[in-house]
Backbone:
């Protein structure tokens, strides 16, 4: 029997309540590059493809009357998105300077790396996770 053998993460899809607000957040606050932006008239919906430096993407959707996220962050399904950054404190300070609430920095008890959480305009939990040394697949840091 063959296995699927997934490669890197290609994209994560996010549904937002206010397209203009979320577009500004992801492009101006987080600095993601726009790959493509399309308005889908039949769905009264935008689809914005955003690139991260490693080639993975975030697809930002707007749908009329989408229900809000039920809880933060412990509902079943996607818990949060985590972005690797070289310096968590510097990234947290940059967000705070733009009026974004950032939780206190914590240290991952297993890796020793620092991390923190903040939220996008719709309350989707986002994490900043400090980069560390490269780990060979199949080994522990």
Residues:
């Amino acid at each position: 029997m063959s296995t699927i053998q997934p490669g890197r993460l290609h994209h994560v899809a996010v549904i937002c309540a206010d397209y203009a607000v979320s577009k500004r957040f992801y492009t101006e606050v987080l600095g993601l590059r726009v790959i493509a932006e399309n308005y889908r008239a039949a769905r009264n919906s935008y689809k914005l493809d955003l690139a991260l430096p490693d080639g993975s993407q975030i697809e930002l959707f707007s749908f009329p009357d989408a229900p809000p996220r039920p809880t933060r962050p412990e509902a079943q399904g996607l818990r949060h998105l985590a972005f690797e950054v070289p310096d968590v404190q510097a990234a947290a300070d940059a967000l705070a300077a733009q009026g974004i609430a950032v939780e206190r920095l914590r240290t991952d008890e297993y890796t020793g790396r620092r991390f923190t959480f903040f939220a996008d305009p719709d309350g989707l939990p986002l994490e900043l996770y400090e980069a560390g040394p490269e780990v060979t697949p199949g080994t522990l840091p």
Observations:
- The beta strands are 11-16, 33-40, 45-51, 57-62, 81-85, 106-107, 114-119, 125-130.
- The CA atoms of residues 1 and 7 lie 19 Å apart.
- DSSP finds two helices and eight strands in the chain.
- The first strand starts at residue 11 and ends at 16.
